[in-house]
Amino acid sequence: MTVFDSIFYIFAIITLVSAMVTVFAKNIVYSAFALLFTFFGVAGLYVLLNADFLAITQILVYVGGILILMLFGVMLTNRVTNIDIRSGSAARIPVGIVVLGLLVALGMIIFQTHWITYKDAPWTSSIWNKDAVSASLTEFAKQQGSEGTAVTIGKLMMTDYLLPFEIVSVVLLIALIGAAMIARREPDPVEEV
Amino acid sequence: MSVGLNHFLIVSAVLFVLGLFAMLTRKNAIAVLMGIELILNAANINFIAFSRYGGVNMGGQMSAIFVIVIAAAEAAVALAIVINIYKNFQSVNVSEVDKLRD
User: I need a labelling partner for B50 at 20 to 30 A (CA). Which of A53, A85, A168, B39 fits?
Assistant: First the structure.
């Protein structure tokens, strides 16, 4: 077992165990804190997959933004005087059966499909020269290793992915305005007069 | 068996199934949102795993960035809606919210 493998297993266990705590904990605050560890574990998996920029983004956006938002939601929607911050669950057994069936189906799909990874991709043998491809792969890996993925992502964002980038920025603006509109406190009619 | 594409896909499948379970069984609206976040993370792991093992390209990572952005927008709007529901119903139990208007 290489170092890569053991690090993968550590992060996978962190991710899955804390995801289970998120799903099965009775107290919603425990769920929120377990979600924190899930996001960190997923960020670790991103690093293992050569996605360093995305790992940082994951921690900044999910842990720094979404999770804090969720904790605020928990605090604002539970009466503090009332100890009842537990949340029940419904129809666990039938949903559990369906979901386990789905997991088995997904596992079968994953293991029975012959995924073409780049080690055995057709171009490495027939179309292109094998040495040239492996040389370009090492070149790519070297480039990735020296400057990370942030430079590549920045270039792509301003060239190939310019339209999605602009659309997503408009979506964010709309979501910002919409969330502020929806959550705004209604003005008191007595004060208005 | 050294770690390869399959391992990441399995982690992502388990994460997806857990998120689906949370979405379908939890009664607290915020816990349902947490399930949705788990599902989006599972999708992101798939995107990045295929980006890494599928060849020399960055398409998967770019898609994952857009997924993160959409997830942030979705969480903001959904929590605003949940807070409004709490104002009207004094509860965030999704099975008690059954009126469109008073």
Answer: A168
d(CA A170, CA A108): 40
CA torsion sign, A21 to A22 to A23 to A25? Answer: positive
Residue A31 burial (CB count, 10 A): 25
Q: What are phi and psi of B85, to 5 degrees?
A: -60, -40
Dihedral sign (CA B35, B37, B38, B39): positive
**Residue contact A175–B73, C-beta within 8 A:** yes
Interchain proximity A31–B68, CB inside 8 Å? no
- Assembly ipTM: 0.91
A179 touches chain B (CB under 8 A): yes
For the segment B17-73, what is each residue's pLDDT rounded down to a tens digit? Answer: 999 999 999 888 899 999 999 999 999 999 999 888 877 678 889 999 999 999 999
Residue B44 one-letter amino acid: N
Helix (H) or strand (E) run with residue A70 in it: helix A67-76
Q: Tokens 């399930």 sit at which residue?
A: B35
Query: Is pLDDT above 90 for B86?
Result: no
Closest by alpha carbon to B78, among A43, A175, A164?
A: A175
Please judge whether B34 and A76 are an interchain contact, meaning their C-beta atoms are less than 8 angstroms apart.
no
Q: What is the pTM of this model?
A: 0.85
